[in-house]
Design a protein that fits this description.
480 residues; mainly alpha; 3-stranded mixed β-sheet; 20 helices; 12 strands; globular
């Protein structure tokens, strides 16, 4: 009998026990999402989730290994320094102009140049926003992208902007702490992001005007598609599609943007905390020969174990069983009565594949106790997903009355998608049918009615042209 694998119960106790109680956590071995199981400060962060300016600031500071000076207050500090540098008969007038032109109502800087990026701050709770920045610097932004190419800028040819730029304080050095990095198997989506980022960076003005849209769009697409993938477990041949509608079109309950849009996605977001905990706990089953990958998700784990002998696979299943016994016993101590849900506990999703079923069972037990808990633990379960729901509602959702929330692409975001889908293509145009395919590569699908509405809008603003020498093919032009 193989003893290749071993469940490290002692390590789990050290990580997951808070005193004598088991506390659900995530991110000790593998990070999937930047969310926290506490949404008490979510309302304060909604403005930051909508603008993403603080995320941009965090990304540039992480990349440069810097931090803002202690107690840096953009409006107060920069106005004082600008007045010191300027010979003026009316300091009050200059201050009024600076407040109106350079600063937002919340005191943050207006993005008039790439050079202000590192000085952008979050106004509310920054834990999740900083986590989003970590996600981008861990997974999305290539290590060979130099920070100088993001934040370097020439004079703006605007005296007021250049005055403020000259007043920006020197950033302080900040050594990055060693933390668990993010993991994902959505490499194709990440590659498309990197190509889009490279294109935007080729033009300072285009980059400055669209960097926030790029980050918000891919955050939406990434979390949405990874949520769907995790909920498929091992069924990789099944492709679930996320459909969006055009902001100005009518929608019915029979359409894909309703059935396979937010209505479907919201159910997948609700159990993210269970996936984060299940995969973290599975990493505490250790491989004696240290061949098992350091980080993995369900499909990667199963694919790897499938190459092992039946004896080794049985060893892994035995250790997973020990993990589930440990987990159930710890929840017993929290007065969760498994016997009340005996039939659900016994449920098997993969009865013909014991290896798959054993892995799935870890998630199932975690999710079951959250769903059935009446002691308040389900509050953390909901809070974890609420961060992404709030982000979507601030940026990509539209309330359509009796249909409720739907994923909606605004005219502004359609033009942004046209911009990045065309990229550096010759003549700055793309065939209309190719445009839909490029949008799909970026994680969103559109049904025929939505495509027709978008086509009509593009024609109305003179971005659509027909070439008779190409068989009356329709092309979409790019606005730079």
């Amino acid at each position: 009998m193989s003893d290749r694998f071993q469940f490290n119960e002692e390590a789990v106790r050290k990580t997951y026990k808070n005193g004598n109680q088991f506390a659900h956590k995530s991110g000790s071995k593998i990070k999937l999402f930047p969310f926290t199981a506490n949404d008490k400060k979510l309302n304060d962060a909604k403005e930051d989730l909508k603008s993403f300016h603080g995320v941009i600031g965090s990304i540039t500071r992480i990349m440069s290994g810097t931090k803002l000076p202690n107690n840096f207050k953009p409006a107060k500090d920069l106005i004082e320094k600008a007045i010191e540098k300027t010979q003026t008969d009316s300091e009050e007038s200059l201050e009024d102009i600076l407040r109106q032109v350079i600063f937002q109502e919340n005191g943050n800087l207006v993005i008039f140049s790439k050079q202000v990026y590192p000085y952008l701050k979050n106004n509310g709770d920054a834990s999740v926003l900083n986590g989003i920045a970590d996600l981008y610097t861990s997974l999305f932004i290539n290590k060979d992208v130099e920070i100088e190419s993001i934040i370097r800028g020439n004079n703006t040819q605007n005296a007021l902007y250049d005055l403020v730029t000259s007043c920006l304080p020197e950033l302080e050095k900040n050594k990055k702490k060693d933390t668990v990095g993010y993991h994902s198997s959505l490499s194709s989506l990440i590659q498309v992001f990197q190509n889009d980022l490279k294109f935007l960076m080729s033009d300072d003005r285009v980059f400055t005007e669209n960097f926030d849209k790029l980050l918000k769009y891919y955050f939406f697409s990434y979390i949405s598609n990874y949520s769907l993938q995790l909920n498929q477990f091992f069924d990789t041949k099944i492709q679930h599609r996320i459909y969006a509608s055009f902001d100005t079109e009518s929608l019915s309950q029979s359409r894909d943007p309703y059935l396979n849009g937010w209505k479907m996605l919201e159910t997948k977001i609700e159990n993210l905390f269970s996936h984060a905990n299940a995969l973290d706990l599975l990493h505490f089953i250790e491989d004696r020969d240290n061949i098992l990958p350091n980080v993995f998700d369900y499909t990667e784990l199963y694919a790897f174990l499938s190459n092992f002998s039946e004896e080794d696979q049985k060893s892994y299943q035995d250790e997973v069983y020990k993990l589930t016994v440990f987990y159930k016993s710890e929840l017993d101590k929290l007065n969760f009565t498994w016997a009340n849900f005996e039939e659900e506990v016994k449920k098997n999703k993969y009865p013909n594949d014991e290896l798959k079923n054993s892995i799935w069972k870890v998630w199932h037990l975690i999710d079951l106790q959250f769903q059935k808990d009446k002691k308040g633990r389900n509050r953390a379960y909901s809070a974890y997903g609420n961060w992404f729901k709030a982000f979507c509602k601030e940026n990509f959702n539209r309330n359509r009355g009796r249909l409720g929330q739907t994923i909606s692409i605004t005219q502004d975001y359609l033009l942004f998608l046209v911009l990045i889908c065309i990229g550096n293509k010759p003549d700055h145009k793309i065939k209309l049918n190719d445009l839909w395919e490029e949008i799909e590569k970026r994680g969103i699908f559109l049904d025929h009615s939505t495509r027709d509405e978008m086509t009509e809008f593009l024609a109305k603003i003179n971005l659509l042209e027909t070439k008779s020498d190409s068989g009356d093919a329709q092309y979409v032009k790019q606005i730079l």
